[in-house]
Amino acid sequence: MLRNRGQSGQSQSDSSLTGEGSRHMVFAEIDLKSEIPTKQLNVKEVDEVPMSNRFALSSGALGIALAIVLFVPTFVAAQPSGGTTKADTKTPKEGTKTAAGTNAWTAPRTPDGKPDLHGYWISTSFTPLERPAKYDGREFLTTQEEEEVQKAGLRRRTQADPSGAGEPHYDSTAFGLTPSQQGFVPNKRTSLVVDPPDGRIPPLTPEAKARQRATGDNDNIEGGGPGGGVVHADTARDLGVLTNCLSMSGGPPIVPGGYNNGVYILQNPEYVVLQAEYGTELRIIPLDARLHAGGNIRQWHGDGRGRWEGDTLVVETTNFRPEATFRNANPKSLKITERFKRISADQIEYSFTIDDPSTWIKPWTAIVPLKATQGPFFEYACSESNMDVVNIMAGARATEKAAEEKAKGASGIPISQH
Fold it and tell me: Across residues 121-130, what is the average pLDDT?
């Protein structure tokens, strides 16, 4: 049996944790205090890279490094003199007085007066995207329920067996990928979805249901859904963007998955840059009120445009590619609106609204808290040398040949066992 990872390129939620083996490498260490930041870029290999892979690795790293080299000088100019590699969690010595007479927390500011979002943040959570039936009518957990959910989540996500039994990729604990090691965001909500008030994603439109039947994620699987059946892998395109490592889940939106739920934020008056830890994907978002690109220009992460509404950064994204739309939405009508608001020394309230009238009967919104963490993040290298496509296609050919031999009266024993 060959497992199919689908077409979407979006990370899976905690309720169905799957993932690809990753090769962790320190991509870059940027000293934002340096007056000559381009001299502070260091790419460090943690383990030996096979010679055949070095060109591909260096090319990918070069592209991201070039983007950072181009933008770092202006980002440095926009950072406070006390900038660090971690989200600035210093509380001001004197906050604003509230009516109750207590000190209210005040967000740190960049030189241009905007809230400082710069730093490393994680979204790891044990809160499901949609509200479970047992919490119908309840928006929040009690303190005791929240503690129980956290304990259960930590048990479920911590691999105690050093042999890796039950984990087909690697020992998550050994690689520091568990929430107890990477950190997680406590959350009393019963679901990330907050609108509609029932905490559930609205029903699909008839058009979306028809589209799903016509181009479902599992069309290339015979005899079962994910995790079962025979994969039809005639070309690499049959396997989707995630298996091909073309696009992971760099957003939008930011939705916590199985691991590597970090996002690194850089900002200056003209741009904000979001680098997802999972997939090491960059989104460079202009803040200068420029118009969206034409409808014939479609990108892996859409075409994002940002603006400030008071102390909230608002990013609207359209122009998605059909191969990598969120939850198989219609790339021609999907609009995702994200909001980032710094609400405490170590937390950003991040929310996103999905608006696609051809896919859902009404828009819906989710809130995903982001918590400050210590950087840097390591580069995420997709599926060790990107061999998944080669191996899956070879397996499909072997299965076909075994079937042909069986039809001719041969043993039908898989080629690998001959």
Answer: 94
